[in-house]
Here is the input.
Amino acid sequence: MSEQTPNDIAPADNQATEYESALDTEQTETKSNITITESAQAYLADLLSKQDTDGIGVRIFVEHPGTPRAECCMAYNQPGEEDSADLKFSYDNFAAFIEASSVPYLEDAVIDYNKDRFGGQLTFRAPNSKVPKVGADASVEERINYVLQSEINPGLAAHGGMVDLIELIEEEGIGLTAVLKFGGGCQGCSAVDMTLRQGVEVQLKQQIPELTQVIDETDHTSTENAYYK
Here is the structure.
């Protein structure tokens, strides 16, 4: 059993109950605020009861975490398959195991079940799966990548595009410059300069005040995949 859904699904309502679990591993405490709503718990409990296996649970993880290809997944967890480093969430009729390496990417994640006339759908919203939420002590590079992957690239993806940070350059008399490279539908696009100046640069400078300049080093002579030609 595997559930994979897009990351732009609407979040559950405010009455969703949050569950927090902690596991001590070599004196290091790991926590997660992932939410499995009551409707999702009921759906999963019913699904697992049909497997006729005592102690069967679910395992939650992220494939390709921290990249634009990140996918949130859920699979059956047979008794004994869990890892000692996993976070365990205990519910009334089953247990959920969160893969330790996926925990940062599942910050603020919500698993919900919405009924409809066709039965219903299990949805998985994980806004930090493509890049984990950065802390106050994060480097400028980490903060730029977070803004690019969590806020800018989801919008560019509508046109099949993307943008990545290539390097940061500190130049005397200029300041800190972010060098970017566009890809997909943005490479060779006739509107890419407007996208850079009125969108990407403005958003980055608003959230990363240390930046003084944003430049594009993409080879835009290649227009094969350009959204606008």
